[in-house]
């Protein structure tokens, strides 16, 4: 199984660290690719898929290193996904160039309620060029900071996704029921862009990841069920 852009970014971030990164559950022995407990590793189930749409993840500080991060799932399924570390003062030039690309239609993925009155807000990708969905990947507080303090994104339209259901994501605590994880939003965006097969593949990958992540938590019902089954 080859690396993807998020795993590469994770390796670069770890190389810059001056002390070990200790995520929750850091005592658990994990696969260093999918970051799930070794018994729950899903690397052999990953099937790359082609899509017309493309994703660019702008990730906040330690986000690539968190086992609960779901932006990594997008890169698992769509190998041409890009990932950059967010910087308020020195954004990567490659990211700036991408935002000005003639090959794609760059679109910032964020709730419309946070866009100014002068900002173009889309409910679906426009026809023409393939969409480049720019996703701000971090906690909700971090994502809002990135949206407010990234002037190089200000000229781009915003697309807002209403999933109209309670999020299936329970790996972290959301602040409200209308906040979704990165992978869930990406699945909806792929469906809007009529990348049906990719949406289905990412949806299946997300469901399996969520099941195995929760099964790896010692006090979660899924883990208790798995332990009971092993002892039968």
Describe the structure.
The protein is α/β, with parallel strands linked by helices. It is 33% helix and 11% strand. The chain contains seven helices and six strands; from the N terminus they run αβαβαβββαβααα. Strands 2-1-5-3-6-4 form a six-stranded parallel β-sheet, sandwiched between helices. Helix 5 runs antiparallel to helix 6. The longest helix is centred in the C-terminal third of the chain and has 20 residues. The radius of gyration is 18 Å and the shape is globular. It starts with a helix and ends with a helix.
Give the helices and strands as they follow along the chain: HEHEHEEEHEHHH
How would you write the strand order of the largest sheet? 2-1-5-3-6-4
What is the average of the pLDDT values? 85
N-to-C CA distance: 33 Å
What best-fitting shape do the alpha-carbon axes yield?
globular
Which structural class best describes the helix and strand composition?
Answer: alpha/beta
The biggest beta sheet is recorded as: 6 strands, parallel
Individual helix count:
7
Q: How many β-strand stretches?
A: 6
Helix-residue proportion:
25-40%
Quick recap:
This protein is α/β, with parallel strands linked by helices.
Quick tags:
alpha/beta, 7 helices, 6 strands, 33% helix, globular, disordered C terminus
Write the layout of secondary structure elements.
Layout: H1 5-16, E1 54-59, H2 71-77, E2 82-85, H3 93-99, E3 105-109, E4 121-122, E5 131-137, H4 140-148, E6 158-159, H5 182-192, H6 196-215, H7 221-230
Helix pairs in contact: 5-6, 6-7
């Amino acid at each position: 199984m080859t690396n993807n852009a998020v795993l590469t970014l994770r390796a670069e971030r770890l190389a810059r660290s001056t002390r070990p990164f200790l995520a929750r559950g850091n005592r658990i022995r994990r696969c260093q690719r999918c970051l799930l407990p070794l018994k729950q590793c899903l690397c052999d189930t990953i099937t790359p898929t082609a899509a017309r749409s493309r994703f660019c993840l702008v990730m906040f500080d330690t986000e690539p290193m968190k086992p609960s991060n779901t932006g990594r799932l997008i890169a698992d399924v769509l190998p041409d996904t890009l990932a950059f570390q967010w910087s308020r003062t020195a954004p990567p030039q490659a990211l700036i160039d991408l935002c000005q690309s003639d090959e794609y239609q760059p679109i910032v993925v964020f709730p419309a309620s946070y866009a100014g009155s002068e900002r173009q807000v889309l409910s679906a990708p426009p026809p023409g060029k393939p969409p480049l969905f720019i996703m701000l990947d971090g906690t909700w507080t971090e994502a809002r900071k990135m949206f407010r303090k990234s002037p190089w994104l200000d000229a781009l339209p915003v697309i807002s996704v209403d999933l109209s259901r309670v999020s299936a994501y329970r790996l972290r605590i959301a602040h409200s029921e209308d906040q979704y994880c990165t992978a869930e939003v990406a699945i909806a965006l792929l469906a809007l862009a009529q990348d049906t097969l990719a949406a289905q593949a990412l949806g299946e990958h997300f469901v399996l990841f969520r099941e195995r992540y929760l099964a790896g938590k010692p006090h979660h019902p899924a883990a208790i069920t798995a332990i009971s089954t092993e002892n039968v």
